[in-house]
Amino acid sequence: xxxxxxxxxxxxxxxxxxxxxxxxxxxxxxxxxxxxxxxxxxxxxxxxxxxxxxxxxxxxxxxxxxxxxxxxxxxxxxxxxxxxxxxxxxxxxxxxxxxxxxxxxxxxxxxxxxxxxxxxxxxxxxxxxxxxxxxxxxxxxxxxxxxxxxxxxxxxxxxxxxxxxxxxxxxxxxxxxxxxxxxxxxxxxxxxxxxxxxxxxxxxxxxxxxxxxxx
DNA sequence: CGTTCGATGCACT
DNA sequence: GTGCATCGAACGT
Length: 215
Hints:
about 220 residues, DNA-binding
């Protein structure tokens, strides 16, 4: 299991906005007992420090946000709305709480597995609207992404230099990126800390909120 | 096209 | 008890 080109600790031990920008175009990989799912990162958001009101570290250290204060290059996964796991990557030095939320991927490997996970029933309701999802919808949005990748609270605190959950550098062609305010938050909207690939079908949010036909 | 709203678990006040 | 870094169904225009 050594033929991956994993990002090293130094990559994550940097200013969060730089890490966020540089994560675009990299590959997020989840390897669960040999079942591999992966995708190109096309949309992320930065959450930076106790002075960022939207950051979970805003109230200071708590039991939940402890991973954000820890070593860079680890996962911070938490449950939102009782339903969705949110996948973050811890950045910056120890004691400096910050992370990058992974919002959307363009699926690369394991799309069949992703589709199966997305169509699982959740408390009677069928996820994914019951329709056959196109690839670019499988990991579109942070809740959909974790469901498709099989990322759960069990992945909280995972070391991204390990073999289960990590980011690979494949030096794909450059994407055109853009910055915007973060989505779905009530405070901290003044910061343009969301980065995304322009005009990409797998990106969530305003430009693609309503159904688009194809790509 | 748009807006509203329920589901669902848990950290935090 | 309150409020989410969401999603998609249901309904209104």
